[in-house]
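Weekly structure sync, notes
Attendees: PL (lead), two postdocs, one rotation student
Agenda item 3: pending single-chain targets
PL asked that the sequence for the first pending target be pasted directly into the notes so everyone works from the same version. It is reproduced below exactly as submitted, 214 residues in total.
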Amino acid sequence: MAYVLGFFAADGYITVNKRGGQFWCIQITDKKLLEQIRAIIQAEHIISERKRDGTSILYRLQIGSIEMCNDLRRLGFTQKKTKNLAIPLVPRKYFFDFVRGYFDGDGNVWSGLIHKDRKAPSLTLQVMFTSCSLEFLRHLHKVIGSFGVEGGSMYVSKGNYSRLQFSARGALKLYDLMYNQRGPSKGSMLFLERKKKVFEKYGALMNCGRSSTG
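Predicted structure, written out during the meeting:
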C-alpha cells in the first residue's frame, strides 16, 4: 500500500462533486500498472479511458469513498496538494515502497554518454524526482539521505516545479533500495518495468566495460 500512496502523491487527486460525493482518482497512461493498483486495493471499479491529444490514451481509476478520502487528508493529501504536498508518516521498512511509487509517477531515470567532446565520453546514470512542492523534495532528500544515499542536488525552475537529482552513485543506491527488497512483499512488488530496465541496462553496460578492460 505504501507504493500506491507514493503513486497517488505523484499522479492522484481528490475531487468533490456538486452533490457532495467524494472521490479519489489516479490517472495514468499505463493500464497494466493501474490494473495492478486496483488489485492491490481490492477494488472492482471500472477503469475508464480517454484519448489525450489524439496520440495516447489516459486510463483513470476513480473510487468514491468519503472514508478513504478522509484517510488521505489525514495523511496530508488535500484537494489542492500540488504545491502543498507533504511526505506522510510511512514506516521506515516501507519507505522505499513509497519512494518507488512516487518515482514511477513523477520520477525519471536516464542513462547515456556525457562529455561527448572528449576522447573518452563517460557513461552515466541519473535519477530525478519532480514536484511543484520544493519543501516536499527537500524533505524527501533528507529522508533518503538517512538511508545512506549520498549526493543529490536541487534544481528550481523559473516555472512552477522543482527537481531533485542524483548522479550515478546515488542513483545505484536508490535502485538497490527501491527494487532489491527482502521479505514477503517482494514477490508482489509493484513497479514500472520500463524504468527498472534503464537501471539494469546501465548495470549491464558497466559490467561489460569492466570485463573488456579486465
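Discussion points:
- The longest strand covers residues 122-131.
- Residues 2-213 form a domain with the Endonuclease I-creI fold (CATH 3.10.28.10).
Action: rotation student to compare against the earlier draft before next sync.
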